[in-house]
Design brief:
heterodimer; A: Thrombin, subunit H; Thrombin, subunit H; six-stranded antiparallel β-barrel; 27% helix; globular; B: mainly alpha; transmembrane (chain B); Rod shape-determining protein MreD (chain B); transmembrane helix (chain B); membrane (chain B); cell shape (chain A)
């Protein structure tokens, strides 16, 4: 017995090494699972406070560009508003609930971001107290950015579109053919559009937008433009590379969108056993 | 190890940590070369430090950095890996006449040749572990090798600059 203990004592460093590595691997696995614990990420209150202090110093460097972006978005919205405002005459009839908007929008600021790893995350300076919830879609004036993974009281952690596990249901605007956008881990400006059948005509420069099928994003938010199309190795689907619309290296302000009826849609699909890709 | 060295080491860990998460996190050359300067901190702790305390330090430091990188566990695993192999590697490359006691194994104390042989394999081991875990389950092995090699060179060069600028000969920080 004593010899066993002595032996164990003599390899204590190795035993500690194995233990610590096991803990680290357990952390990696639990963090990367979809239902992973999200306490230890950059949205916890200490880390968030630290990062937003840093952002207080660095935000001045990007003010010019973010102002320009906001002004552009404003102009676009004003144009759309002018088109939508009804002319006051008796022809107008009130819309019924079929056309009622089911989306809520919020804004937030990016305080932490990375683009060069294989699985990238973004931290935002808004949290549960500002109405941010898990699963909300994130986009900016240019295009979609990601999806909220976890929230604390004042901060939120977002899975960037530059994360190899995130799929976004998208479609080609011209032909309404749908597929899924997924990053392949190589270039932060390009992503793949998957599951587009081979018989579809796709051309360089076609616009790819969100399809609105998976209830995270409303229909029609820009994802990117088609860069190249080839037959690829899969016998059923085309190999499409798209240029992402959002510039991930200069993210400053983003919008969050919440679908009020996501729970209803999800439970309906669960009952009818529809699996969304 | 006297109290002076201990205080300098504790101060050093905070400095390296803050520089890593606030500045170097955003500094990636050509989307390829990362700088994990905190590795240099682990390498420059005094030679006498035992493997067990070193692994605990590496675990805590790696974990803190992981929280800011949103890469939970990856820095932890690679830092512990480096800590475990540091002592055996130091023993292997003992120069004739052995080591002076109470000397941090810095570039200025030990000379370029020894430091190159000491640090490069250990940095390479750390970076290889990091990028291997990061790219696990994909087929991106060629970019992974490029990233590992360029990051090793980058970390080593920045590490040398830091030592020349901020470390004194035969002293702690």
């Amino acid at each position: 017995m004593q010899r066993i203990l002595l032996f164990l004592y003599s390899i204590r460093a190795f035993l500690l090494f194995v233990t610590l590595e096991t803990v680290a691997i357990w952390l990696i696995v639990s963090y990367n699972s979809p239902q992973g614990a999200v306490f230890f990420n950059s949205s916890n209150s200490f880390t968030g406070a630290f990062l937003s202090t840093k952002d207080n110093f660095t935000e001045y460097f990007t003010l010019g560009r973010s102002n320009e972006e906001l002004a552009k978005k404003n102009a676009l919205l004003m144009k759309q508003l002018a088109n939508l405002s009804p002319v006051k005459d008796s022809v107008n009839i009130p819309l019924d609930s079929l056309m009622e908007s089911t989306y809520d929008f919020r804004s937030a600021k990016v305080i932490n971001n990375s683009i060069n790893l294989r699985n990238n995350h973004i931290t935002l300076n808004r949290g549960a107290e500002d109405g941010i919830k898990e699963g909300m879609g994130v986009f900016n004036g240019d295009g979609i950015v990601g999806r909220v993974k976890g929230v604390s009281r004042h901060y939120a952690s977002v899975i960037s579109l530059l994360h190899t596990d995130l799929l976004v249901s998208s479609k080609i605007r011209a032909t309404d053919v749908f597929g899924s956008t997924q990053w392949d881990g190589k270039n932060p400006q390009k992503a793949k559009l998957k599951y587009v059948p081979r018989h579809v005509q796709v051309a360089h420069g076609d616009t790819v937008v969100t399809s609105g099928y998976n209830a995270v994003f409303p229909e029609g938010i820009l994802v990117g433009t088609v860069d190249s199309v080839s037959n690829g190795t899969d016998t059923n689907y085309l190999d499409i590379t798209i240029d992402l619309a959002a510039n991930f290296s200069t993210l400053t302000y983003v919008y969050l969108v919440e679908n009020n009826r996501e729970a209803e849609l999800d439970s309906l699909q669960e009952i009818t056993e529809i699996v969304n890709e | 190890m006297n109290s002076r060295t201990v205080i300098a080491s504790i101060g050093g860990i905070f400095l390296y940590f803050i520089v890593q998460v606030l500045i170097l996190k955003n500094l990636v050359l050509f989307g390829m070369a990362f700088c994990f300067l905190y590795v240099i901190y682990l390498l420059l702790l005094p030679i006498e430090i035992k493997t067990i305390p070193l692994m605990v330090i590496a675990f805590v430091l790696g974990f803190s950095i992981d929280i800011f990188y949103d890469s939970l566990g990856i820095h932890t695993a690679s830092a512990v890996m480096l800590a475990f192999f540091r002592k055996p590697w130091i023993t292997v490359i003992t120069p004739t006449g052995g080591y002076d006691s109470n000397t941090p194994p810095t570039l200025l104390n030990m000379g370029m040749g020894w430091f190159l042989m000491y640090s490069v394999p250990l940095i390479l081991l750390h970076h290889l572990t990091f990028f291997l875990i990061d790219n696990l389950g994909t087929s991106l092995y060629i970019p992974m090798v490029y990233k590992t090699l360029s990051s090793t060179v980058f970390t080593f060069i920045i590490g040398m600059i830091v030592q020349v600028l901020f470390y004194k000969k035969r002293r702690g920080i």
